[in-house]
Amino acid sequence: MVTELNETTFKDFIGKSGIVIVDCWAPWCGPCRRMGPIIDELDKDMAGKVAVGKLNTDENQAIAMQYDINAIPTLLIFKDGVAQEPLVGLRPKEDIISYIDRL
């Protein structure tokens, strides 16, 4: 199950070992709503390999500013707690998996 993140839980979640994906979204964003089922599928397909979380940028603006999120959806990717290049915009599941496999 995708973990809902906030300013209290974010730091511990991204600090997990391995690969972490954080879907940065907002409820009013059409592409974000279309990305939702893709994120849910990734969570199921990559269970045990990748930790998947969601962050509502409207409710957690300090984190959005910290990571310079200017467009949503944005996928923040972390490997062993270190930020990788984010993926910005609506992406097919295959593109996201391909990116993760290269890490």
CATH H-tier superfamily: Glutaredoxin
Count of individual beta strands: 6
CATH topology: Glutaredoxin
Mean pLDDT score: 96
Helix content: 25-40%
Number of helices in the DSSP assignment? 4
Could you tell me the radius of gyration in angstroms? 12 Å
Domain module tally: 1
- Supply the helix-strand structural class: alpha/beta
Distance between the termini: 23 Å
CATH class: Alpha Beta
Main sheet specs = 6 strands, mixed
Topology of this protein?
Blueprint: E1 3-5, H1 10-14, E2 19-25, H2 30-45, E3 50-56, H3 61-66, E4 74-79, E5 82-83, E6 87-88, H4 93-101
Parallel strand pairs: 1-3, 2-3
Antiparallel strand pairs: 2-4, 4-5, 4-6
Name its key features:
protein-disulfide reductase activity; 6-stranded mixed β-sheet; Thioredoxin_domain; Glutaredoxin; alpha/beta; 103 residues; 4 helices; electron transport; transport; Thioredoxin_CS
